Amino acid sequence: MLLNKRIIVGVCGGIASYKAIELVSGLQQAGALVDVIMTDHAQEFIRPLTFATMSHRPVYHNLWEPSGQAAELHIALAEQTELVAIVPATANTLAKLAYGIADNMLTAVALATRAPLLLAPAMYKGMYEHPATQANLSLLRERGASIIEPQVGRLASGAIGVGRLPELSVLMGAINLVLGREGDLAGRRVVVTAGGTQEPIDPVRYVGNRSSGKMGYALATVARDRGAHVTLISGPVALEVPYGIELCKVETAIQMRDAVDSVITDADVLVMSAAVADFRPITPASQKIKKNETRGSGEQGNFSLYLTRNPDILGQLADADRESGVKRSRRLIRVGFAAETHDVIAHAQAKMAAKRLDLLIANDVSQPDSGFGTDTNKAYLFHANGRMEDLPVMPKIDLAAAIWDRIVSLLL
Ligand SMILES: Cc1cc2nc3c(=O)[nH]c(=O)nc-3n(C[C@H](O)[C@H](O)[C@H](O)COP(=O)(O)O)c2cc1C
Fold first, then answer.
1. Dist. CA 351–CA 360, nearest whole Å
2. Ligand 1 center to residue 13 CA distance, Å?
3. Could you tell me which residue, 366 or 269, shows the higher pLDDT?
4. How far apart are CA 359 and CA 369, in angstroms?
5. Which carries the bigger pLDDT value, residue 347 or residue 57?
6. Catalytic hit among 209, 310, 363, 377
7. 313-324 and 253-263 helices cross at what angle (nearest 10)?
8. pLDDT (tens digit, 9 = 90+) per residue, 24-39?
9. Closest CA to 272 of 345, 338, 186
10. For residue 92, which atom of ligand 1 is closest to its CA?
């Protein structure tokens, strides 16, 4: 999404300015054309050479130096850029921006540009919580600036409080979100389910599966980067929650069904990539089952677990629509996943028909490059008109983009 995007990273004189080095490097590696503008005070912390080395481009700081490139360099930079991200934004620069002061290269560009403005305030908590800073942030927010909220944590002073610059993934996520606002999913509400469910056996054990959630998290991230409002309903996974996504955590299939039902009414798209357990223990024990307990009719040393079928979330939606004659305000595009270990195509075709899906993504999870936990996937796409696409092995993030391409064409 960042390939060839023109981004200005403004760096102010705050202690977190060293974290902007990582950001510039991350953006450059993602293919963005990054112009760094430093304030004079930022150069008390870091030398321009460091940023120039990371961005592979010149670094700007002096409003008065003839550039030889454009009559007014600050205007040229302001007009060319697609985003101005100020990371970190000091209390001082926030105050200047709020009052339209343009006394250095960064504040002059920020005032002149009509590109979106993204601000990542970072400072000692006393400065951040001061009514002047809060009023300046409110004013900037009202005028359309996007603010990355600082985190609570250990500050450079040693104090614990609000004011920390968030981690790189948050900064990159916020940049992607702002740049993607006008994307082909702008104004759409999408719901993505991800991860596996955990069905309790007793308070400490569960029946689960190997789903890592990577495919669902990739789908949610790509939808965000294309402008959608994303609700991610996730089973327990070891993944970072993507920035700017509404997360609903669940554990069991029944919780996932209830969560889907509660958010689906005004959604345009439901993508069910979660591996929902087909069965759950019929009566979970209220206390931990002891090692020497025997259950069922088994011999000594055996233990029988009685399972009952879980609700079929997509199937129930299809049934509810059939009964109600589809009373939704908009047509809901339904996308399902089929993780198979054999007869992938036959199983997928049967699932497609039974659940009234618009698109089904089937993959053979027994293969090393498309199984649970991998970063790649090899998928077959089944369309409602019977067409099947056999996609090559690709990173999950690229497969997510290919899936959204198909969904966008269904939304037109
Ligand atoms: C060691 C040191 C650390 C500082 N850290 C911060 C900070 O994290 N956030 C902030 O808003 N100001 C911080 N300041 C104060 C700013 O550097 C000062 O307000 C300066 O005028 C900001 O200039 P600029 O906004 O043009 O970069 C710090 C100052 C010093 C000396």
1. 8
2. 5
3. 269
4. 22
5. 57
6. 209
7. 40
8. 999 999 999 999 999 9
9. 338
10. 25
Q: What is the pTM of this model?
A: 0.92
- Residues with CB under 6 Å of ligand 1 are 12-16, 39, 41-42, 90-93, 122-123, 127
Distance CA 305, CA 295 (A): 8
Between β-strands 151-154 and 160-164, what pairing exists: parallel, antiparallel or unpaired?
A: antiparallel
Ligand 1: which residue has its CA nearest to atom 16? 13
Q: For residue 143, what are the contacts with CB-CB under 8 A and spacing of at least 6?
A: none
pLDDT digits (tens, 9 = 90+) for 209-230: 999 999 999 999 999 999 999 9
- Is the pLDDT reported for residue 363 higher than 90? no
- Dig out the tokens for 39 from the structure: 């304030």
Integer Cα distance of 23 and 324 in angstroms: 51
Q: Would you call 104 a catalytic residue per the annotation?
A: no
**CA 345 to CA 366: how far, in whole Å?**
14
213 exposed, middle or buried (CB, 10 Å; 0-12, 13-18, 19+)? buried
For residue 196, the SS3 value is strand
Give the helix/strand (H/E) hosting 272. Answer: strand 269-272
**Atom of ligand 1 minimally distant from the CA of 16:** 8
Cα separation, 214 vs 220, in Å, equals: 10
Q: The dihedral of CA 245, 251, 257, 262: what is its sign?
A: negative
Helix (H/G/I), strand (E/B), else coil: 86: strand
Distances (CA, A) of 72 to 25, 40, 75, 77, 79: 27, 19, 5, 9, 11
pLDDT at 90 over 70: yes
Residue nearest ligand 1's atom 29 by CA: 14
For the ranges 94-108, 127-141, 378-392, which has the lowest average pLDDT?
Answer: 378-392
Quick: pLDDT tens for 102-144: 999 999 999 999 999 999 999 999 999 999 999 999 999 999 9
Q: Beta strand 333-340 with 359-364: parallel, antiparallel or unpaired?
A: parallel
Percent of the chain predicted with pLDDT > 90: 76
Beta carbons of 82 and 117 less than 8 angstroms apart: no
75 CA distance to ligand 1 middle (Å) = 26
What domains are defined for the chain?
A: 6-179 (3.40.50.1950), 189-411 (3.40.50.10300)
